[in-house]
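Researcher: I'm preparing a figure for a lab meeting and need a structural model of a single chain. I don't have an experimental structure, so a prediction will have to do for now. The sequence is pasted below. Please return the structure as tokens so I can convert it later.
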Amino acid sequence: KHLQENSYIYEDMMTKGEFFRNGFNDWCASKDFPFCMTGIGSMFQIHAKTELPRLPRDLLGQDEDALGELQLHFRLNNILLPWMHLAFFSAAHTQADIEEMLRAFKASVAV
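Model: Understood. Here is the structure written out token by token.
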């Protein structure tokens, strides 16, 4: 019932998700970092690939060691992210929260 009465939440989640994923992908591409992020709405997942995967088979050959090392840097930047799984943010996250998440993701990758 809450979502029916507050349908703007869906558009807000899509907007925040696009901001987060595009911000991460554009930044990684500009720095030549071999990572990308996929997802829709509030769902996202990081891959050790420079190009966005379109199919599951596109993930073959990604740098598993780099993903493992990235997990350590995420934790050092106060991010607990399930490795090799989708992650989510919630409707309770503000735009400022999403911007802070993006900053922390960038800091983790830049190490």
